Amino acid sequence: MTGTSTPVLAAIVIPFFTLLGAAIGFFGNNFLATRNLRKEISVKVAEYRLQWINELGEQFADFAACTASHMFASSGEKHEELFKEAQRAKSRIITLMNIEDDLFPPLDEAMTNLSFYAGGHIGASPDAEDVRKYYDLQHKFLRISNDIVKKEWRKTKTHLRIDTVKSAALASGGDKDWIDRLAYPENS
């Protein structure tokens, strides 16, 4: 009887383990593909955010340069053109910014103050007090701009870290609480 049961057993066991191996391979590949897709999406979003942050930084620099040119232009230079350049840079900043950001109101105020102060000295030779006041306003604008760029860069790094930690933790079979402690150590 052992002679006939071995082929029957082999006919049952071999397909069973073949199907089991195929199922494990399918679900394993699906899991890895999903994890890799999450990583790719996270990296792509980070790339777009970095492009946006760089563009915003360039607009901050353009606005500061335009207002400086406007402030210190001699009376023969084209003040209307310099004013338009400054306003164009300001408009691009406003368009790129999230107006719900808590730093937007002080930024908008700093841009307005800097623009009006520079525009108010058209054709005049600024004295030392005017120059000091202008640079104080410019410093305030640049400080807020720098804070915005740094804040957005930190957000980008944090999101990348969280996505990477979560992907790695899920792959290793970590539970949700463990994953959250790794991804958000400041909340532990």
Summarize the helices and strands and which ones pair or pack:
Blueprint: H1 2-72, H2 79-96, H3 104-119, H4 128-171, H5 176-183
Helix pairs in contact: 1-2, 1-3, 1-4, 2-3, 3-4, 4-5
Shape: rod-shaped
**Residues in β-strands, percent:** under 5%
Mean pLDDT: 79
Number of helices: 5
- List SSEs in N-to-C order: HHHHH
| Class by alpha and beta content | mainly alpha
Radius of gyration: 30 Å
First-residue to last-residue Cα separation? 64 Å
Number of structural domains? 1
- Low-pLDDT stretches: none
**What is the β-strand count?**
0
Largest sheet, strands/sense/barrel:
none
Q: What percentage of residues falls in helices of 4 or more residues?
A: over 70%
Account of the 3D structure:
This protein has 188 residues and is mainly alpha-helical. The chain has one domain (40-187). Helix content is 84%, strand content 0%. The protein contains 5 helices and no strands.
List keywords for this structure.
single chain; about 190 residues; mainly alpha; about 0% strand; rod-shaped
Would you kindly provide a brief summary of this structure?
The chain is an all-alpha fold and 188 residues long.
